[in-house]
Design goal:
Elements: E1 3-7, E2 10-13, E3 18-25, E4 33-39, E5 46-51, E6 58-60, E7 68-73, E8 78-83, E9 92-99, E10 112-113, E11 117-122
Parallel strand pairs: 2-11
Antiparallel strand pairs: 1-3, 3-8, 4-5, 4-9, 5-6, 7-8, 9-10, 9-11
């Protein structure tokens, strides 16, 4: 059974930092591209970042480029999202997702999703 479990969310002030982590089990982690998405209250889920199977390629939404960094550890089966210079508009539930295909946008075809972790950025 595939499981993706996010952690690291919380409350932070504007300009602060958080590091999210997603632990994967039940799949051959190194064969999946990994992704972060987020969904703010009352808004649709949106793409945040993606990393290729071996970690050599990354891609970011324009809204987080230069502030967020995605990384992965294929030994520990984890994918992290380092977030700095956080803004109130970054407030959302953050989800990690696994797919055999490297995605740069939200897609119905994503294979596996975690349940999310809440990030709240206070102004």
């Amino acid at each position: 059974q595939v499981q993706l479990v996010e952690s690291g969310g919380g409350l932070v002030q504007t300009g602060g930092s958080l590091r999210l982590s997603c632990a994967a089990s039940g799949l051959t982690f190194s064969t999946y591209a990994m992704h972060w998405f987020r969904q703010a209250p009352g808004k649709e889920r949106e793409f945040v970042a993606a990393i290729s199977k071996r970690g050599g390629v990354t891609y970011y939404a324009d809204s987080v480029k230069g502030r967020f960094t995605i990384s992965r550890d294929n030994v520990k089966n984890t994918v992290d999202l380092q977030m700095v210079s956080l803004k109130p508009e970054d407030t959302a539930v953050y989800y990690c997702a696994a797919d055999l295909i490297f995605r740069t946008a939200l897609s119905d075809g994503l294979d596996y999703w975690g349940k999310g972790t809440l990030v709240t950025v206070s102004s």
